[in-house]
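Session log. Operator J.P. requested a structure for one protein chain; no other inputs attached. Running the standard single-chain path with token output.
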Amino acid sequence: MSETTTRTPDTSVILVCAGNATRMGGINKILMPLGNTNVIGMCMLAFEQSEDIAEIIVVTKAENNAVIEETAKTLGIRKLTAITEGGSTRQQSVMQGLKHVSKESQYIAIHDGARPLVKPEHIAKVIKDAHVFGGATLGVPVKDTIKVVDDGLIIDTPHRPSLYITQTPQVFRKRQYFEAVDFAMEHNLDFTDDCQLMEAINCRVYMTVGDYTNIKITTPEDREIAEVLL
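Structure written below.
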């Protein structure tokens, strides 16, 4: 009779939601109602249900703290360990979150707080791939033909089978991720994507195929689409 092994959670997730919501017309998208809770609540639930996740750290604007704390309490979120204020860029916000990562964690997962439909099985899949390759990100193949345009004229058509839409979470071995952060700070670099950050120190990142439903809520229409997908 085989024994059941319990996996030890070794990943800290940083939920990044400190943006200005300019494309939402000033609407605070992470607190928008969605399902039986709100957008950030859906995100926290997905990572709460993941047995690989040891802790949840939320990076947001200070005025959101009370609502997020209440949302976590209502949903029974036990892995939330910190809510901290973000910086002026995405990378700076992630760095604020890094200050709260526990010493025991071996991997860092970065997730857009505006991607509330991420599924626990895909979280597990990308973390598993990160264990193998050192870094992995969720993504999906591009469906449309992409054109490179310069001054209104098409100058190239990239090979579509090699193109993917990058999603989150993006998961990296903690030691390597901190090396990349140090490199970016030393060279005054600021990236909008954590894969780019890792690529800057020549770390290869695996593309884990996810789900087209893992959308990012960027415009008011996206929330309506998310409700339909739910």
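Operator note: The longest strand covers residues 164-173.
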